[in-house]
TrEMBL record:
Keyword Disulfide bond in record: yes
InterPro entries found in the cross-reference section: SEZ6_CSMD_C4BPB_Regulators, Sushi/SCR/CCP_sf, Sushi_SCR_CCP_dom
Keywords: Disulfide bond, Repeat, Signal, Sushi
Organism whose genome encodes this protein: Araneus ventricosus
Gene: Csmd3_1
Protein name: CUB and sushi domain-containing protein 3
Coiled coil location: none
Record-linked Pfam families: Sushi (PF00084)
Domain Sushi: 12-79, 88-155, 164-231
Keyword Ligase: no
SUPFAM superfamilies: Complement control module/SCR domain (SSF57535)
Region (Disordered): 14-35
UniProt superkingdom: Eukaryota
Gene3D superfamilies: Complement Module, domain 1
Length: 234
């Protein structure tokens, strides 16, 4: 018990991120989080805007990281621009060949249309087009643009003829690298497209900063930079 108390004292602290004007701040469980305070590493807050006339511009969910900073800047609540008496909209982002587009609730979203600010869509790949390259979840922003470019579905039957490979991502000090299935992968290897690795920190006094799960993509690059293991500031 004493060991865990000592580790707890070393957890990073993030300053109060504030609350956007015309917005509110909640804890992940939905309870109110508007009281000003400091936040410990790993704590998260959710932002939303008050009233349908405002749209959230930025990330709604942010987390206090091991280096004492937030995972994203505080978002803003803005009154969307009006075009010809109507709220700005985003063009139909399209559907990748071999893929499908869904609403956040899982319902079909394939019918071509304009999207209002704040609306989101989720992409998946089907059948032989089994690898999604890019971001699966995109949102219509207040400036009428999408948060990310639509993804692509990679045809494995074509790519397998000349399958992409990714170079060994390395193992920084203080961390082990594992396959998702749990087998050890610490030896230098070449990884094929679609293969993934999971990073963990080897000591409880270190915290992982960055993506813990990365995948070899069709262009021979990893889906995210290699993370770091850092000793949280006292």
């Amino acid at each position: 018990m004493q060991y865990f108390l000592e580790v707890e004292k070393q957890r990073a602290i993030c300053g109060d991120p504030g609350i956007p004007r015309d917005g509110s701040r909640l804890n992940p469980d939905g309870s109110d989080a508007s009281d000003p305070r400091m936040f410990e590493e790993g704590e998260s807050v959710i932002f939303s805007c008050n009233g349908e006339s405002f749209a959230l511009h930025g990330t709604s969910f942010i987390t206090c990281l091991a280096d004492g900073t937030w995972s994203a800047p505080r978002p803003r609540c803005i009154n969307p621009p009006v075009v010809e008496g109507q709220r700005a909209t985003c063009d139909d982002p399209g559907i990748p060949i071999g893929g499908s587009r869904l609403n956040p609730d899982g319902s079909n979203s394939s019918y071509p249309r304009m999207f209002e600010i704040g609306e989101s869509v989720n992409y998946t790949c089907e059948g032989k087009y089994s690898i999604l390259e890019g971001t699966s979840y995109i949102t219509c922003l207040a400036d009428g643009a999408w948060s990310e470019l639509p993804p692509r579905c990679i045809n494995l039957q074509v790519v397998d003829l000349k399958r992409a490979t990714c170079i060994y991502p390395g193992i920084p000090k203080g961390r082990s690298r594992l396959y998702p299935v749990g087998s050890n992968a610490v030896r230098p290897l070449v990884f094929q497209m679609g293969e993934s690795v999971i990073f963990t920190c080897s000591a409880e006094s270190f915290a992982l900063h960055g993506a813990s799960f990365i995948t070899c993509l069709a262009d021979g690059t990893w889906s995210a930079p290699r993370p770091r293991c850092i000793n949280p500031p006292v």
